Structures are given as structure tokens and as C-alpha cells.
Amino acid sequence: MRVLVTSSRNTFALDIVRKLGSTGHTVVASDTYAGAIGNHSRFVSAHEVTASPRFETDQFIADVNDIVARHKIDTIIPTFEEAFYLAARAHDLPDGVTLFTGAFEQLARLHDKASFQRLAEQAGVPIPETVVANDAEELQAAIDRFPRYFARAAFSRGGVGLLTNTGPLAGKMEVSDAQPTPDQPWLVQPFVDGPMVCTYSTVVNGRVTSHCTYRAPEQWAHSTGIDFLAVDSTDTLAYTQRLVDQLGGDYTGQLSFDFVDNEGQLYAIECNPRPTNGVILLEADAFVTALEGTNDTVSVVEPGVERQVSLAVLADAFTDKLRHLPKSLHDLIHVRDVGAGWHDSLAMMWSPATLVHGTKMSHGSRKEILAALGDDIVWNGEEIQGMSARDAEALEAVHAQRV
Q: What domains lie within the chain, and their CATH numbers?
């Protein structure tokens, strides 16, 4: 394959670049700024800078088309929410190029947390009781309904903007800071006790071809995982296939789900229809075979496989009055780093460029850095410039499917 990996700023995008490049495929990496870590891997044959898919959609599509033509790309693998813009503008991509992501309507159903709850219910996948709030009054009424609650926007990501009165994030956000609208509603659920369980899958023509279930024993600011431990996949694999079947059975792309494990009962919380850090736990050959859909059985990561982002673990050791120091030091010694064995250390040395990019995207405001880091590549449910009338209608239908 000759592959374009987009949004190469993410650790998991770098991992995909490494897996493809190390197995003999030609890889071009791209992002909206030159310092993205994946652009500097030794496994890329070239790296490119594109316009922002969110803010300059037409130019982004033109840039991707130019990259495809110049580098003779046959497959595009989105790694973040640029997938929505590419899927909505698939009719404008060159003939013959494979876009490894679902159709726009499928992505929208999965990404909108409100419509995802309906999808999970239809698929027979357990979900918490859910109330959708379209304005401040409805939000307050929903919060008052649950003694312990957990609320977030229908379009949110990365553990940013969570409203709750329970757990380590209680009080971090005020109710008045949430501003739900019919176009940007909020979900309110009873707080479900238990650890978060995450999944990552590749899917080809409606069949799950690889799957990983993992926990994040170490997190940065109770949000983004920096240590990843594979656990049993029996239930999550079955749930993932059910959800894929509910989408219509023709889904092709990457999927990631978050569950809460409440004393052995898993409850689906949300979906990211793209890769997450679970891909790091897959072996390179298994990942590429699953991507191509040539394996007869699902490649499942065995429980106990563990990887960490050592730089983040080291930084975390010195937060919260050194309370994480003993475990962090243990992990640094005993847990394999995501870059171990790749001999590709130059790529991670570009990590500060991502922080600089996030600072620029925040425009000097006090916006949370995790939110700012992806501002130019996210999709929050709006109509996309140049999308087909069919996809615009599909978007309206997705909104109507909210619980």
C-alpha cells in the first residue's frame, strides 16, 4: 500500500505510521503544522502540511488531493476527526483512492453522543439511563434528577468539559459554564461507579478484524491515558460487532469505545469513530493484516500486554505533590515504552511542537490545553462545507435519532 496518514500529531498516529512503514508499506504523514510528531518518523517517505479541515475545508480537500496525486497514494487513513470532513467530501477525492473510514452518516451516528446512546440501545448494548438537555433549564432539571450525576456535551472529547458532582473531577466545572442548545445538547447520566474500559478495533466490510480492550492505570489530570494495559476482550468484542451490525453491516474503518465496568457489568459511554491509544497494543503484522481484512479470525490483543508514554509518565510523577512518584518510577522501570524497539526517537523529540501548536490554537485564552490541541481538526456536528445534499439530510436524521 501507499498510505497517507492524516493528523499525525497524535501518539497513536505515529504508531500507525511505524506499523505500516516497518512492514514494507510506503507512508506519507500529514498534519496542519510541520512539527507534528508523525511527520518526523523515520518510517515516512515524505511529510506534508495541509490546511485545517475545520476552518479551511475546501483547501484541506485540495491539499489532500494534491498529496494523493504527487505521492501516488492508494489509501488514506484518518486518525482524528478530519475523518468527518474527508467522509463528507469523499465525492471530491480522486478516483481509486480508498478512504479507511466509515460513511459520513455512520460516523455522525457514532460521534454524536446522544445519537450513539440510541444506537447502543438498538444494538442491545447496555447503557446508563440518559437525559438529553437542550437548554440550561433542561440541564438543571436533569442534574436535579440524579443524586450523583455525570454530564458532558454531545460533541466533546479527551475528557475535556466534564460536569459532575462525584469523583476527582467534581466541581472542576460549574453548571453555568455548560450552555446546551438544540444543536449542541448535553447528556446527563447517573454517575456509574467503576473503572473506565476502552477498546480499539479495525473493521472491514462490517467485520471486526482486530480488537483490543484496555485500561489506563495512569492518566494525565484524570483525563488522557498515558499507560495502557490490555484486559479481557470477550464482552467488548461482542458489543462492538453488535454496534457495527446495527450500523448496517458495511462499515469499514477504525472504532474506539469507552465503557464503565460496574462490578463486572459494562455500560457503553461513548464512541470515537477513529483510532485511540489501543492501537499501540497491537503487533505490527496483526494490525496491517487486519487493516487489509485478509485475516480469517479477529486479531485480539491478549490480556496483560502493556505500553506507556514514558515522557508523560515522567511528567506525571512530579504532579499532585509527588503522590504519583512511586508508581511512576515503577512503571518507568518495568513497563515497555510505546517507542521501544522502533529506533525512532527523533519523532518524539518533536512533542513540544504540539504544545506550541495548541497554545497558538487557544489564541491566548485560558482554554484547556487538551481542547486547544485539536481545535483545527475537530468536528462538532455542524454542516460541512461542500458536503452532499444526501449527507446533509443524513446529518438531520442523526439529530432526530437522539434520545
A: 2-102 (3.40.50.20), 129-191 (3.30.1490.20)
